[in-house]
Amino acid sequence: VVAAVARPDGVLCMVTVNELRLPSDASGKPEQLSRMLAGFNPSHITQAVPGAGAKVSAFEKSTLGGQEARRFVLEASLPLLGALKIRGHATLRGFGAIVLMCMAPERLLGASDVKAAFALVHKSFRFE
Fold this sequence. Notes:
Number of strands: 6
Shape: globular
Strand order of the largest sheet: 1-2-6-5-4-3
Helix content: 10-25%
Number of helices: 3
Order of helices and strands: EEHHEEEEH
Structural class: alpha+beta
Mean pLDDT: 89
């Protein structure tokens, strides 16, 4: 499952859900979330953007939707967009793996409208 919203200038936010049933509590949080996320590492992130020479420049424990997650920054280069930064979060729910990413060409990252859009996406994300 993928949902995305994009602008013609290469600014994009998307959420992907890879279906995988996991034993969970009543809220949908996997029973062994911390242990499963401990096995998640930067190499898993670079596989998400094959062929773009992607490199992880940040990877740390964080939260998404009030639940433990991993925050990452991925730097890549795509022919039409040039240097690209991808900021995202990854976590698990009872129904699968969730990755929320916002990306933009490096030349646009400092624009106030891009910063505001990324902040809104991350702040308003819900598991519903």
